[in-house]
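Minutes, project huddle
Topic: does the predicted pose make sense with iron/sulfur cluster bound?
PN asked that the exact inputs be recorded in the minutes so nobody has to dig through chat later. Recorded below.
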Amino acid sequence: MSAHVDEIKQVPRSGASTRPARPKKSNGQWKVDGQEPLNKNEIDKAADNGLNVRTRIEEVYSKGGFASIDPDDLHGRFRWWGLYTQRKPGIDGGRTAKLEPHELEDEYFMMRIRTDGGALNLEQLRTIAEIAEEFARGSADLTDRQNIQLHWIEIENVPEIWRRLEAVGMQTTEACGDVPRGFLGSPVAGIAADELIDPTPAIEEITRRYIGDPSLSNLPRKYKTAITGHPSQDVVHEINDCSFVAVDHPEHGIGYDLWVGGALSVVPRFAERLGAWVAPDQVVDVWLGVTEIFRDYGYRRLRNKARMKFLLADWGPEKLRDVLETEYLGYRLADGPPPPKPMVSGDHVGVHRQKDGKYFIGTSLVAGRASGTLFHQMADLIEEYGIDRIRLTPMQKILVLDVDETDLDDVGARLDALGLSSRKDLFRRSVMACTGIEYCKLAIVETKQTAIDAVTRLEERLADIDLPHPISLHLNGCPNSCARIQTADIGLKGQIVTTDEGEQVPGFQVHVGGGLASKDRDEAGLGRTVRGLKVTVDGLEEYVEKMVRRFLDGRSESETFSEWAHRVEDEELV
Ligand code: SF4
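Predicted holo structure (C-alpha cells), as shared on screen:
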C-alpha cells in the first residue's frame, strides 16, 4: 500500500463483534489494488499494448483487408492510432440504441490527426488536402480539440497515409484511446501581442517525449490536456483533465496556474485549481506527474467512473497536490494566485495585430465542416501572399497568421469568399457541432448540416439586431458532450422527440445558460434544463430566434445571455 493511501485501523469497541470486516471492493487502482484487470477493456489493454497494433496494420491488415482484422484490435487498439470504424450510412437515429455495435459499423474508418496546439504550416495543409481528396472522399472536418478528422478511410491505405503525414511532421499516434489525447494549446501561441507566455516549448517537449511512450499508453481512460499563455484563456481549461493557465505571480513572475479533473460527457464536472504556481521549466514534470497519478490511482473497475474527475471528487485538490509533490515530483510547488477573469474573447475571430507587427485573421468556419477542397483553396491563397502558417482553434475556427497590413483587405475578402468570414457580428462565430449521425455510431441526430442550415437562416432572421455579445449555440448528436453543450448559451443534446401530433422525429433537449468562467461569467456554470424543454430539428431556428429576442427585451443592462437565462422563470425559456 502506498504511503499516501490512508490506512484506517478499526479497533473493535468493547463487547462489539470481532467478525472480520468485509474486504473493500477493488476500484482497480493500480497502486492500491494491484494491476489485475477487472473488465474487458482492461483485460485487452493488459494483453497487448494498443500501440503494438501499428505493426499488424502495416504488415497484416492493410494487406489482408477489413475481413482480416482481429475484432479486439478493430474495436480497441485501433484507437491508439486514431482509427474508429464509422457509422454505416442509412441507419436512422432511433435505431442507434437498439443495434449491436457491429451492426452499426461500416468497413471504413474515421482517422483523427492530432495537431497539438493547432499549428499547421503550408506543407501540412497541402498534405491533409491531398490525403483527404485521394483517400477520404474529400472529407476533412475540424474538431473542437484542434484535431482533423478524415472519413471513408480504407484499411489498405492507412500505411501510405501515415507515411505522408509523418513526412511532414504530423501523426495520428494516440489521437484516440486511453492515452494522452491531442493537446489543446492557445491558437495564438507565440504571436499574440498581448500574450503572457508562449506555451509552445512545453507542448513540443511533452509531445516529443511522451506521445507514443508505452509507459503512458495504458491510462484508465482518455486524458485531455490544455495549456495557454494568453489572457483570454482560450483553451477551455475548466473541462480538461490537466490544464495550465498563464498567471503572473507577484514574486516569481509569469508561470502557470494548475487545474485538474475537468470533463463533460454525461456527468459534467469542472476542473479545480490545486493552488499551485508552476514555473515554465516545471510544466513537463508536473504534466508527467499528474498523468502518472491518473495512471496509478485512476479507477479502472468501471469505465464510467474511470476519468480523472472521479478521483479528484474523492481526493479533493489538497490531497491530489500533496501526492503529486511528495510521490511524483519530489519537491513542493509554490503557492500561486488564480488567473484573473479574462476581459477579451478567446475565439480570436476578427483581425488582430501580432507582436511582430504583422496581423492574424480569425475566421468562423461553421461547425467545423471543412474539406480537402477548402484546404487546397486555403493553401493556394496563403501561398500567394507568402504566408506559411495557420492555426486551428478549440472553437472549430481557423486563424491565418502573418498577414501584412497592406494585404489585410484582400486576404480577408478572399477568405470570406471561401466561407471563412472574419466578421465579429455574425451568429456563426459561436456555433459548434460534433460529428453527429453522418459518421458517428453513437449518434441519434444529424448535427453538422443542421448547424450550417440553422446559421444561414438565423443570420437572416436576426439581421435587424446587434447582439451585445456572441451567443453560443452548440449541437451534440447524443448525450455525450463532444460539442460541449453544457457550456453553451444554448446547448442542444440530440434525441428523438415526440411532436404534439405524436410523431417521433429528430430533435434536441435544450440546455440554456451554460458558460465558462473564461468566457463571460465569474464562475463556470452548467446550462440549466427546463422540464420538457425540447425542440425538433425543424423548430430549431424559431426557438433560437425567440430566445435571442426575449433576452434582448428582458435583459438588464450589461447582463449576459447566460446570466439572464439563469435569472428568468422556466416559462421564459420555453
Ligand atoms: Fe458522436 Fe455523441 Fe460525440 Fe456527437 S456527441 S460525436 S454523436 S458521441
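Observations noted during the meeting:
- The first strand starts at residue 83 and ends at 87.
- The pocket of iron/sulfur cluster is lined by residues 434-436, 440, 442-443, 476-478, 480, 482 (CB under 6 Å).
No decisions taken; revisit at the next huddle.
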